[in-house]
Design goal:
The protein is of the alpha/beta class. Among the domains are: about 100 residues, no CATH class; about 55 residues, no CATH class. Helix content is about 50%, strand content about 15%. The chain has eight helices and five strands; from the N terminus they run E-E-H-E-E-E-H-H-H-H-H-H-H. The protein has a five-stranded mixed β-sheet, with helices on one face. Helix 7 crosses helix 8. The radius of gyration is 25 Å and the shape is extended. This is Rpn family recombination-promoting nuclease/putative transposase. It comes from Desulfobotulus mexicanus. InterPro entries: RpnA.
């Protein structure tokens, strides 16, 4: 989901939600920030008309695995003097939902994140009820969500998109897995040409000697055997 809006003070806000890591996400976020920032100018405009762009990424996966904090914000600061800010026009926020173990409901951000993570789960802990009662903006967002889910045409379009995305992700996953197995199969065949023993090939390819022997015995069908064995183990 991708939402673009302009705040009352003129800043552009782009909110994106992603449920899986497709790789190069930092570069992707910077690219789309650049796109929105650059689109502000048309022929004849000068740089004084540029307004800050806040890019908010709400992620259902861990992007920065070595950092415990779930909210990270990147800005343009001088390397050796971090208090020196080049401009406040760039800010990239990353909110990683899986890192959240407890919510501070005195914070507006945590209220929103709890809602986004738990909407539709029918939790009966009373937290959602209190959040909706005390946060008119979140209550308004929920009304729009319910209106959307009850609109048959919109729901069908959404479900169709979800089915397409799942099929696309599955096809991509299969293609990547097949590529890895093709590389492993090619490695086995090349090492065999160097008269290496199955035990030696197994150590290099991280297979068992029995698997290596089976692949060699299968010849051209060895790739299929690797994929079938992987499917059986998973």
């Amino acid at each position: 989901m991708d939402i673009k809006a302009k705040s009352s003070d003129g800043r552009w806000i782009d909110i994106e939600m992603q449920n899986s890591d497709k790789g190069f996400f930092g570069e992707r976020a910077l690219y789309y920030w650049t796109d929105l920032y650059g689109d502000q100018l048309v022929t004849g405009d000068n740089y004084s008309t540029l307004r800050p762009v806040v890019y908010i990424n709400i992620l259902d996966f861990k992007m920065f695995k070595n950092v415990d904090r779930y909210h990270l914000c990147f800005m343009l600061r001088e390397k050796d003097t971090p208090e020196l800010l080049l401009t406040d026009h760039l800010s990239l926020h990353f909110l990683e939902l899986p890192k959240i173990t407890a919510y501070n409901l005195d914070k507006s951000l945590d209220n929103w994140l709890y809602y986004l993570k738990n909407e539709g789960l029918n939790k009966e802990d009373g937290i959602m009820e209190n959040i909706l009662k005390n946060n008119p903006q979140i209550a308004n967002a929920r009304e729009k969500y319910l209106s959307f889910t009850q609109d048959e045409h919109m729901r069908e379009a959404y479900d169709s998109h979800i089915r397409w995305k799942r099929d696309h992700d599955s096809a991509l996953f299969f293609a990547e897995k097949k590529g890895r197995h093709e590389e492993k199969f090619q490695t086995i065949m090349e090492l065999l040409d160097f008269n290496m023993k199955p035990e030696e090939i197994a150590r290099i390819t991280r297979l068992t000697p029995e698997q290596v022997r089976a692949v060699i015995a299968a010849g051209d069908k060895g790739l299929d055997l690797l994929m079938e064995d992987d499917a059986t183990r998973h």
